[in-house]
Specification:
Layout (H helix, E strand, L loop, with lengths): L13 E2 L2 E2 L7 E4 L11 H11 L6 H9 L15 H13 L5 E5 L7 H16 L3 E5 L12 E6 L2 E7 H5 L1
Parallel strand pairs: 3-4, 4-5
Antiparallel strand pairs: 1-2, 6-7
Length: 169
């Protein structure tokens, strides 16, 4: 609902004082599945999505790729990327337009430990730049420097809510 992919059955959601539909340009979304075009290169994928935001420059796309540890010059089709590379490209797609809010579903999934650490560092930097990050993960240890609180869901219900400082102590 926060991503604007479904409507609430009751009530409403406001992001930055606007309805989710009107705030979409301020949201970076990374689904659990990468949702990329396999026949395109990484840069071609980002260019396609950049057009949806009215971005015609490769500079923010190249920066996003470098920030997630990918080479913007790699001409290989995404269908030939490893799962970890696809995951990192999906994150690059979520951040290239400098959104205020990042919605990330399992960003550390299928990435090696060095890449997971690099992604965590990137997220800490984004949070320090006043981004709001709502992240779903099973790897809580990677978030110790970034999280304000941890919410634990069990069978679709909130079962625990712990400030990060207490969770890491």
């Amino acid at each position: 609902m926060i991503a604007g992919l479904s409507e609430p059955s009751s009530g409403s959601i406001l992001l930055f004082g606007r309805k989710t539909r009107d705030a979409r340009a301020s949201i970076g979304y990374m689904a659990h599945a990468p949702l990329l075009y396999d026949e395109l290169s990484g840069m071609e994928n980002l260019r396609f999505f950049a057009r949806l935001y009215g971005i015609n420059s490769d500079t923010p796309l190249q920066d996003a790729m470098r920030n997630v540890g990918l080479d913007p010059g790699l001409a290989r089709r995404v269908g030939q990327y490893s799962q970890g590379m696809r995951q990192r490209l999906s994150l690059a797609r979520a951040i290239f337009h400098s959104p205020k809010l990042l919605l990330l579903d399992e960003p550390f999934s299928n990435v090696d430990p060095d890449s997971a650490s690099q992604i965590a560092t990137l997220l800490v930097q984004r949070r320090s730049a006043d981004n709001t990050i709502l992240l779903v993960t099973h790897q809580l240890g990677l978030l110790s420097e970034m999280a304000d609180e941890f919410l634990v869901l069990s069978a679709g219900e909130l079962s625990a809510r712990t400030p990060a400082r207490q969770a890491s102590a």
